Amino acid sequence: MSKIPNRILLTENELPKQWYNMMADMPERPDPYINPQTMKPASVEDLYPVFAEELCKQEFATEQYIDIPEEIQEKYKMYRPSSLHRAYALEKALQTPAKIYYKYEGSNTSGSHKLNSAIAQAYYNKQQGITHLTTETGAGQWGTALSMACAFYDLPLKVYMVKISAEQKPYRKAVIETYGGTVIPSPSNTTNAGRAILAKDPNCTGSLGTAISEAIEVAVSTPNTRYVLGSVLNQVVLHQSIIGIEAKMQMEKIGEYPDIIIGCAGGGSNLGGLISEYMHDRLTGKKKPYFIAAEPAACPSLSRGKYAYDFCDTGHVTPLARMYTLGSGFIPSSIHSGGLRYHGMSPIISKLYHDGFLDEARALYQNEVFDAATFFAKTESILPAPESAHAIAAAIQEAKKCKETGESKTILFGLTGNGAYDLAAYMNYHSGKMEDYAPTDEELEKGFATLPKIPGIQE
Amino acid sequence: MSKIPNRILLTENELPKQWYNMMADMPERPDPYINPQTMKPASVEDLYPVFAEELCKQEFATEQYIDIPEEIQEKYKMYRPSSLHRAYALEKALQTPAKIYYKYEGSNTSGSHKLNSAIAQAYYNKQQGITHLTTETGAGQWGTALSMACAFYDLPLKVYMVKISAEQKPYRKAVIETYGGTVIPSPSNTTNAGRAILAKDPNCTGSLGTAISEAIEVAVSTPNTRYVLGSVLNQVVLHQSIIGIEAKMQMEKIGEYPDIIIGCAGGGSNLGGLISEYMHDRLTGKKKPYFIAAEPAACPSLSRGKYAYDFCDTGHVTPLARMYTLGSGFIPSSIHSGGLRYHGMSPIISKLYHDGFLDEARALYQNEVFDAATFFAKTESILPAPESAHAIAAAIQEAKKCKETGESKTILFGLTGNGAYDLAAYMNYHSGKMEDYAPTDEELEKGFATLPKIPGIQE
User: What is the ipTM of this complex?
Assistant: First the structure.
């Protein structure tokens, strides 16, 4: 066979026409969502005021494959199929016998995989006749992706952006505005939730919890308006399955099957998307690749969290999900620069981990993560997003093990995004003042103390 | 024939193995460089103290094709061949019968086409045993590309960055440092040129001219050190020919030949690269595509400049070239946000324009350019670099003409880079305070007054 190319490409005719739904093959499914008003299991209709109906249905869907509407396929074709890369330069620099591959999702303007779900969510809302969307954004990756998707479907979008982020990241605001989104620093005086907080503290710099509360308040109180979310939910994991379906096709083209699959994990959308059809092989007993979730030591929801019912937001307005969580009151230290700061984890990913199908959650310290990011940039040329660099760091660890043992394992990891908008974190790293940090057991206990009590379910 | 895809891809086996040299087919070549010390035509050896020898030879080369060394091909394969895009969404939004294509060079981390020449220049320096490189950067695009290339070849790099730029664009500095480059705000106390300026004005915020002088001083006074430049030179146009060679292959794959080819033009490296093999067709009489150089009204070197000998830098240390120029003393107004601020133009491009092979130089006002950039982003999804948006604006003008006449012309333009690092310019545009500007005739005369007198050649 001729040499495997640096980039394994697919034509747009090969773009997957269906998403894969891991729920179909799981021996046990995640526990049901709980309605925060009734504290009873939520029905699909309970979610209608917040999300588009088709997306609510996807939240509960158990079909193995779900058609990707042609209009979404057309939008995907502007930047997909994405490339799979053989990391020849990285392998050489590491002097490892391992074969390293990565699936690169950062070549679109939003800079990350988030666009895959943003397009789908904007489309289904448009189809239903929804005329306005709201969302929140912290670092800005999701707000950017959604503003692009809303431009494609001519949907006005309000992005509640954590005030301190909006001030510190004016460029993120500028991209969102270029695509037509409106950025509202949160807390704002446009909602009851925002006004209440400002009344107490006019100088409040905001939090993701407050931003979610504002975005949902506007969605449920404005005609024809809905809220959208960029991670955690089952629908998002479903949309992101296109990453793994493509990756598997690309690996098959060159006759490869990964021994180890590594994804970074914050809310779980990328990891869930990357493993998708490989997890199908595992769940159905065909193959047994080894799955690693790479997460920050500063926010170790899988490796040190509890599998419990929790709110998806710190504002406590969303349904409760059973997931690995540090407690919605857990706030990662501000000295952590690497992203992936979410307190919980996708219910699907959580269940797979709980039941032993996801093999390992590996917590990484940020200096090792940025060492890996810089080493990767210098060898493979792409500047990775700090989130993605968690997966790189874990892949390098595995490749070094191969060097020791002489094994030529095949490693696949997800490179979820590029770091063009994350240079403040790199500057922090270059300054030499980046500190490694992991919460103490006491700090974790404080977070767990914020877990909700649910009569008859979680006392 | 089946529908033309959104993205026309090439495999890495199809990566061009030779650069194309327009000099070979030009009925008359550009006038020779002049040595600024002797004011006589420069020999290839005159350039050796400044540039690597192989690059000096390329500066004078007249062969039609020059082999791309395999080691350079290997580096190119990490991000090339680049994709050619059919702008379906843009066409639809414009309701034009024109078919619009663009060659996208912005998907690598440096964000632009500059990497194509940076890799080649770093390689040839490394081959010669050069151990250190110097360069200057203004906005930072070239400094970023070169720092990446130097990382590949393990070559220490000093980037003299205009001080005000280094202060205003800390993220650019951070990328360059991530790839191992050293950024020195210019003027600095590391050179005689810098110290002399600081002695006069300790608060001097710097200029490109000063930065070039510092970079060249270090190169010629330090053992095994050379200087590299990202545009204007013949060698750079040669390296960038890979853009046009690929684009022509891609267009041929789908049975298309462009009626109109549009490139943005600052120093001319992108335009020269994009037109390359299409210009071959024109020069050899095979075909007659219509070539448009899109430039800013604020810095209209081709459309309002003089075809004359001038210094390539404002510091007057480089060889003199005959080119279209506004005079090395011309400084574009600070209200201009769109890049492409160079006072001159590649000698090859200048000669082609002077002799009527490059058909038109079109000067565009910046509000129209940013209108086009935003319209393009919302339809085609990619956020363009402001430089590239000059070509987009001209392409939209041509597509609108087609709508009026009903003609279905085929338009190809170069999308040289993405705008991820240019959001300050977009913010200026969003503020509604962006002013259109073109120099008055009087302002141009002041620039022309700085043209050098060369005994017997230019009095």
Answer: 0.95
